[in-house]
């Protein structure tokens, strides 16, 4: 069992998947608030409320994090999350009202189906309505519904991405991750480097190894910045400061580097948030926590493509990892 981010006490996850085209959003809720940090490594991010997560900034806790498809349009879904939380009296007390703090990140899925359909405030609200403390669905749901990976040599040669989750427990502390993988690069086995899902050969029948192909001189196609991205949330029940939460988000990117190649490119907006619910007073130290976070992120990224299903849209076919075998050699 790989576990799930909801193994962390105080965390709930909900998905909303649009039935009109492959897109959607996913929300991670911390009703009692969570100390948070963020680290953006991709060169083309689409985010909201990331500045306030800086260790020197005043706000100490957030109440939810939104992951969404729809590119920058999908940031609208955070408004629905705020509305749902406000209705339940959840948020930062500023006197006359409580203001829910909801950072968000989006991925680009506008190439599949009608690009005029994307997550909005109602979608964010629906994701909150679906939120539970049980292990969430994986694969082609929520923010992973329209995700595609392995597009270095053309979108049409890619494979289906998705959303995945995993958790790691050490010494009474749990770290979990939820990752929506829409990477430009391949998803690889973190232990062997073998390609699990990624760019396919020109005839579409087998996977190639993007790293090896690039090093052998095969040129990538011109890639529009921001049309790829892996986004995710790491959560722990440990008690952390904002500085420590930021360091946890930074360390978690090691997991992306193990599971995606190439990663953090000029065309990706790779962004990871970290949440600490503080349900456990002590923890084994930041080095161990960062190692746990990287492991959970790597596992969740792999799960995102292993749980995905093939997609046929706009005359394009995106097979899932289960449909193709990794080439030998």
**CA distance, first residue to last residue:** 30 Å
What is the subunit organization of this protein? single chain
What number of domains? 1
Q: How would a crystallographer describe the biggest sheet?
A: 9 strands, mixed
Tell me the fraction of residues in β-strands, as a range. Answer: 25-35%
> Which class best fits the helix and strand makeup?
alpha+beta
Total DSSP helices: 5
CATH class: Alpha Beta
Instruction: State the order of secondary-structure elements, H for helix, E for strand.
Output: EEEEHEEEHEEEEEEHEHEEHEE
Identify the CATH architecture.
4-Layer Sandwich
Shape: globular
CATH superfamily: L-amino peptidase D-ALA esterase/amidase
Low-confidence segments = none
Q: Helix amount, in percent?
A: 10-25%
Which whole number gives the mean pLDDT? 94
């Amino acid at each position: 069992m790989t576990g799930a981010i909801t193994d962390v006490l105080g965390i709930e996850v909900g998905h909303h998947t649009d039935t009109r085209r492959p897109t959607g959003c996913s929300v991670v809720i911390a009703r009692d608030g969570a100390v948070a940090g963020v680290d953006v490594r991709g060169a083309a991010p689409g985010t909201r409320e990331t500045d306030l997560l800086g260790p020197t900034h005043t706000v100490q806790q957030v109440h939810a994090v939104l992951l969404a498809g729809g590119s920058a349009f999908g940031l609208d879904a955070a408004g629905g999350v705020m509305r749902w939380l406000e209705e339940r009296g959840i948020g930062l007390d500023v006197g006359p009202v409580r203001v829910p703090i909801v950072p968000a990140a989006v991925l680009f899925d506008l190439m599949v189906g009608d690009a005029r359909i994307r997550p909005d405030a109602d979608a964010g609200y629906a994701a909150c309505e679906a939120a539970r403390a049980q292990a969430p669905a994986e694969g082609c749901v929520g923010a992973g519904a329209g995700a595609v990976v392995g597009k270095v040599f053309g979108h049409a040669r890619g494979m289906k991405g998705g959303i995945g989750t995993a958790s790691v427990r050490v010494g009474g502390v749990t770290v979990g991750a939820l990752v929506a993988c829409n990477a430009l690069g391949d998803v690889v086995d973190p232990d062997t480097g073998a390609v699990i899902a990624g760019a396919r050969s020109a005839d579409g029948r087998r996977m190639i190894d993007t790293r090896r192909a690039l090093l052998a001189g095969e040129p990538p196609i011109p890639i529009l910045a921001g049309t790829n991205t892996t986004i995710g949330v790491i959560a722990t029940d440990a008690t952390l400061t904002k500085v420590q939460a930021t360091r946890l988000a930074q360390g978690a990117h090691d997991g992306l580097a193990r599971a995606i190649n190439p990663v953090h490119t000029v065309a990706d907006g790779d962004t990871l948030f970290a949440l600490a619910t503080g349900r456990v007073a002590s923890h084994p130290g930041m080095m161990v926590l960062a190692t746990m976070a990287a492991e959970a992120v790597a596992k969740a990224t792999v799960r995102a493509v292993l749980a995905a299903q093939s997609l046929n849209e706009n005359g394009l076919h995106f097979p899932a990892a289960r449909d193709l075998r990794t080439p030998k050699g």
